[in-house]
Amino acid sequence: MKMMHFHLNLPGAARSAAMEILHHIDGRRSRSGSTLSTSSRTSDTAEGDVGHTDDIPILVISGTENWEIDTSSRSDRRGSVNWEKMPEMDRSSSPSKEALNEEKKELKVMAREGRWSNSLSQRASAYSHVVKNIRCRSVTPDAEVYKSIASKLFGECSISTHPLPEFMEGCPIPHYCLNADGITSVKKILICIGNQFPDITYCPVLPSIVALLLHYCENEADCFEHVCRIIGSNDSKTHYIDQTFLVYEASCMTFGDLVSKHCQTVHRLLVNTSPSILKVYSKWATWMFGELPFEYAIRVLDVFLVEGQKVLYRVGLALLKHYRYYVASREAEIADVQKDIQNFMNNIGEHVTIDRLFEKAFRIRLFSRKEIQLLQQANINALTQKGITVRQRRQSVHIAVDIMNFSSDTVTAQEMRMVWSWIPERFALFQPVLLFSTMENGYSLQRFYACCEDHAPTVLLLKTIEGEVCGAFLPSDWKERRKMEGAGSNFFGTGECFVFSLRPEMERFVWVLVKNPHLTKPESLMSSSRSPSPASYLSVPGSEAYGQSPSFLSLKNFQLSSKSASMFMSGSNDAIIIGGGGGQALYIDGDLNKGRTEHCDTFDNRPLCKENFQIQHLEVWGIQGSTLI
């Protein structure tokens, strides 16, 4: 049961009286789960107040009960912050008007370099400037609305009782440098947000964002207005906050896809040490807004307000890269990887400075904002197919490989789990289904096509007579090869295609542009009036009609300087080829008997096994529900 602590800062005789009253209350409440305890830590005080070091009465109330708001407490910034905990900074200077009127590109530089870090008033003014320039709905609640709501909800009496919003389920409120009055203010603001935005059903980062902003807002009403503008943003290019479980879980999957592409070693570590990789990624946003200490979280908020959620993907990837360094020598000792990551985030100051963290984050070359939006929409579609709705409350979502019942002549269940962790998250939600096996269907390329056509994506696995195992993830339907007949190039597919080896070494090789996006310039999809909406042609199991292409990393979205960088799949009556340019990652002959593997430009891979090999077993696995109708 979740417990909430409230400190009563009272002078002398009043403190003694309060202790007697609360002990009496405790006796009556003991049956309902509420208890009285004391704390010997220094009480939270406003700047200039004198702190008490003797025991402070604490009323502990179970999270299932209502909680109390003292409406007589001070609601301005000065009375909400424990200034002794705040990092040392200049509280007098203010940024020049010219500095705050810079274009967004310049504001990004200022936020990334931490130019507001050493001045309270500079950061407060910068936040006000940035937030007021967020494009949001025409009717967005402001400070005056907050005053009206607060008056109606909490009344004029000194004590009112209200439950916390439902979207806070399982979402703690970080204290940072706030005192007891500050935490009360955060709760009041969240209650008013719940009142004004009833469609918010799940938002684990919102309590942290409110708490951080309160340090730099003039009062509760000012903080409420800031948060409402962030929630109400309708800027098509800058997304800020996920407000339903469906969208939040899709963002977790998108982050998992990015980790799988940009941080392969740490992804492998997480798969090996966690029974549910998606459960690990489900906490990614709260690493930054919830687990990081104040000095780090506030710098993340700086860039988040200017750049939106995409910057959180960068910082999250950088955090995992540094976490990998942290556990490099003790991987075998990790008992609970989620708690280990949480401990790393809580104590990150021992491992890396915020400037070094940002340096690594902004060296990561992500795909364009539009590409990430397309991937996010694809993940939303996949979750919707799994039965998750916009009004869905929080629930568990797992990678769908049934280890106990999985059977293959080519790979072990654990190896298949690793392969399934590599494929895009939206497909990993569904069970693997065997489509073709040389053991059952024979060594025939025509039978291979007959069994695999009308299925996309697929995973090809092969085992050589020497026991080596390798394969490929193939995002496109083999039927597309027919459209390439007579064309200048008979290769097709998308940038989600990759090749891998499992034995004797486990390694994956993704599209060369994933690691080197600077080699191409994405076209502006937003400018094309002929482009269909993202939801209409994304690759989601069972959702696309024959002839449509997956849009995420689709070649039509990129201007490539060389065709050799996009030779994903090719099929004829004589052979199948995966990867090209300077060599072929996989070549398999028409008898499905012999093959060859070489370095190729498309994946920049090493040979996946012995260069010339003979096939012992070959299997193709599809995604449950991916049959095209």
Can you walk me through this structure?
This protein is an alpha+beta fold and 629 residues long. Among the domains are: 1-65, no CATH class; 245-366, Cyclin A, domain 1; 429-623, no CATH class. Helix content is 38%, strand content 13%. It contains 23 helices and 17 strands. It has helices at 12-29, 77-80, 97-100, 104-113, 120-132, 143-154, 180-196, 206-214, 220-231, 245-262, 264-273, 277-281, 284-291, 294-307, 310-327, 337-346, 354-361, 369-385, 413-422, 425-428, 438-441, 445-452, 512-515, and strands at residues 3-7, 35-39, 56-62, 67-70, 159-162, 432-437, 458-464, 469-474, 498-503, 507-510, 521-522, 558-559, 569-571, 575-578, 586-589, 594-596, 612-623. The strands form four sheets. Strands 6, 7, 8, 9, 10, 13, 14, 15, 16 and 17 form a ten-stranded antiparallel sheet that branches. The protein is elongated and about 80 Å long. The two termini are 48 Å apart. Residues 1-67 and 522-550 have low confidence and may be disordered.
